[in-house]
Amino acid sequence: MGFKCGIVGLPNVGKSTLFNALTQTAAAQAANYPFCTIEPNVGDVAVPDARLDRLAEIAKSAQIVPTRITFVDIAGLVRGASKGEGLGNQFLANIREVDAVVHVLRCFEDGDVVHVENRIDPVSDADVVETELMLADLESLEKRIKPLEKKAHSGEKEAKEQLALMTKAVVLLRQGKPARAAELSHEQQEPYRQLGLLTQKPVLYVCNVDEASAAAGNAFSERVEEKARREGAGAIAISCRIEEEVAQLAPAERAEFLASLGLEEPGLNRLIRAGYGLLGLITFFTAGPKEAKAWTVTKGSRAPQAAGVIHTDFEHGFIRAETIPYGDYVAHNGEAGARDAGKFRLEGKEYVVQDGDVMHFRFST
Question: Are 324 and 285 in contact (CB under 8 A)?
Fold first, then answer.
């Protein structure tokens, strides 16, 4: 089960620097000129979770296997991208392939780093990118609606339902609102997602601040956070430059370096967790002598679907899920103690998996 977050933004806001730090590689060239990232770079990173280490310690696991999330560094967008300006067509094609958008915004002043529009205004930068995505969505929908209207008028039920969803999105876009602002019933959510709209994807704003503002943010990042609250989006402040330095240090030196800056952990840990949450994902665990492993499922998944993440045979032959909440597993020092304390449960097909569940699946072959 792969989940992708696309790193987007105007040129020279710190996207490639952030990506390099995320993957701890030099795969994406970070240079002080527009369009230095021509092809999207892909990095697969572990989701930091202290719970997994604790489970491995209790279960005396020989190996620790974290869950993972993929980040894609996408070429910088400029005003007019929806009409093909800059690398617009490529940008739009690449963003369609990701599940969520990590939007990097420049929240620092530096005369040595050129801004593509010669100003520092992260909210305006965000609006430029959002506008281009909305224009691309609107153009796409208007082309698709015309042939669909004929089918809907002829009485085709599926065409009517799809036309209603497209019309809902068009109304929002013409009002200057992203497609993700639509109010949808539970039944409409998946068909709406399948429309493939750029502005339907969830957004996390990453405020790239100067080193001095890494711990508390600054006036620029505060404006972005206010925008995010209005939209129901996420926002975090990190210094991409600091993260790049941290990534180059030996693990033993990182904590001391971060502490000297007033930071408890790398900002990338918060970013990765925020990206994971942005996609509506939760973690369940399996733990034993061989390995302690984290698994990813979408929030609301039932036990058979979680079993299927491990192996499709587990889902098809699902019988029961042996389940212990993480807190109970730790409090009673493992499976045996949790069982003795009455915290071990057998759950059936309708059980909704909770974040942190430690699970073992019974299945028939």
Answer: no
CB 34 within 8 A of CB 260: no
Are 13 and 124 within 8 A, CB to CB?
no
The sheet with strand 291-298 has its strands ordered as 63-65, 291-298, 281-287, 358-363, 318-324, 345-347
Number of CB atoms found within 10 A of residue 258's CB: 19
What does the block give as tokens for 239? 């210094």
Cut 0.70: pTM above it: yes
For 305, phi then psi, to 5°, come to: -65, -35
Tell me if 66 sits within 8 A of 46, measured CB to CB.
yes
Distance between CA atoms of 227 and 202, rounded to whole angstroms?
Answer: 14
Distance, CA of 177 to CA of 171 (rounded, Å): 9
pLDDT tens-digit series, residues 226-269: 999 998 899 999 999 999 898 888 888 988 999 999 898 888 88
Phi and psi at residue 213, in whole multiples of 5°? -105, 10
* Helix or strand holding residue 226 (H, E): helix 219-231
What pLDDT digit, counting tens, does each position of 110-128 carry?
766 556 566 789 999 999 8
